[in-house]
Amino acid sequence: MKYIKNFYKYRFLLYEIVRKNIKLQYRDSVLGMFWTFLQPLMTTIILVIIFGNVFGRKGTDIVNYPIYLLCGRLIYEFYSQSTKRAMRSIRNSASVIKKVYVPKYIYPLSNVIANFITFVISLSVLACFIIYFYFFSAEPPHLTGYFFLFPIPIIVLLILSLGVGMILSTLEVFFKDIEYLYEVFCMLLFYLTPIFYQIKQLKIQTPIFNYILKANPLYSIAEMFRCCVLYGRMFDIYHLLYSLGFSILMLLIGVFVFYKKQDKFILHI
Amino acid sequence: MSKPAIKVEHMSMLFNLNKEKVDNLKEYFIKLVTKKLHFTEFWALKDISFTVEKGDRVGVLGFNGAGKSTLLKVISGVLKPTEGTVEVSGVIAPMLELGAGFDMNYSGKENIFLYGATMGYSRKFIEQKYDQIVEFSELKDFIDVPVKNYSSGMRARLGFAIATAVEPEILILDEVLSVGDAKFRKKSENKIRSMFEKGITVLFVSHSTEQVLSICNKAVILDHGKLIAEGSAEEICAQYEEMIKKK
Description:
The complex is a heterodimer of chains A (269) and B (247). With 269 residues, chain A is mainly alpha-helical. Chain A contains 12 helices and no strands. Chain A starts with a helix and ends with a helix. Chain B is built from 8 helices and 9 strands. Chain B has helices at residues 25-33, 68-75, 108-118, 123-137, 152-165, 182-197, 209-215, 233-246; strands at 6-18, 39-52, 57-62, 83-88, 92-95, 170-174, 201-205, 218-223, 226-232. A 6-stranded mixed sheet of chain B has the order 5-6-7-3-8-9, with helices on both faces. In chain B, helix 3 packs across helix 5 (152-165), helix 4 (123-137) packs across helix 5 and helix 7 runs antiparallel to helix 8 (233-246). The longest helix of chain B has 16 residues, at 182-197. Chain B is globular and about 60 Å long. The relative contact order of chain B is 0.17. The interface between A and B is medium-sized, with 22 and 26 residues.
């Protein structure tokens, strides 16, 4: 009850910081907010050019390679950006935290939310892709009623990013090296997540490696998302259970360690 | 009898200082395993108890390192005390360092709302106070300029204007009455005096007994983390002067 009241009092701070993060991200750039649209579009085109011939050939069950790739890229990009920014959020706000009392979870939370809003805007690129390929392509995406289930994987992704973001922001205060380690980890994750390939295309012989790839919750989230917007069929309920369970576990751990350690932050930043 | 504005009971604050410098992780682990990792315990504040009634203006005197700033940080909620309790009733405006909540890339106007939100106020409330803040800070022509281009005096003026415009019930002043030029200093002193008349509670940290005498009606002395004296401003200031002479 005390926490809800405190959150209610500081809800404007959450709003102001989210606003600030979005506003400052593209300030002083000529195209401004248009970059949230342009950046995924351009990187996807590059990735399609590079990998299209290898993984996107006809005869695979990827219905439409550019859309397949864009789905994976958007999900990965949101996850990595929001967790990285949440990780640095406490140290970046050191000047405020040291001087004024503010609920500290506002900082990782606002960073994830700000990234989520730009992510939602960048989904418009996906909408454009879907409309374009639906009407002008020999390989149109299968649009069915299952399309409207697409918010489910996105919500799971949001929970996952918030949980991991809180864990990382706590760790980062005590152990700054995590910034560099996580950078490397994110690069590894980019290749481990089926963004531009399908797991079965890799023809992996060792079952262990196969298992590692499938244990990645981003894989489950990306598969669910693609089922909705690309394949037009119901996603495997196993994916939902696994990724949701994983995400909630991360969030619980995140809230727990953050809550346990937050009074010590000020002594280390 | 109304509730006291600030009630501190047996409050202590402990810091761990590293005795030996541990340079790398290997050394750290070895020391951790062999239990040779010593911390020197340092009690920045030890068993502090006092109450501040509503409308009191309390000066906090003490030499460098006596724990004045730590005390203010504990009261404003930035630090959590190791032992004891601190109860505060009313809205606190900490002025530990003016403009600490500013974002350098944000304009003055945007910073007013951000700073207000940091202090826990709503956007609507700040909108009502907006004109007053701009007028008081004398920054009308610069309000849309990013704060990174402000001079330090301009920043301090803006910070002061926001912190006082929201009409807090408890004001914490940490040697901030020296912002800006002489003209603004006069203006800010008048502003604070007008707030006294409304019955605001003040905690004021200073080295100067002169300032304490002119602002406060009560005072305390901190020495090496202990509260060694409390009473009316005149008595305590006299005692503090004595202490300075002895040093």
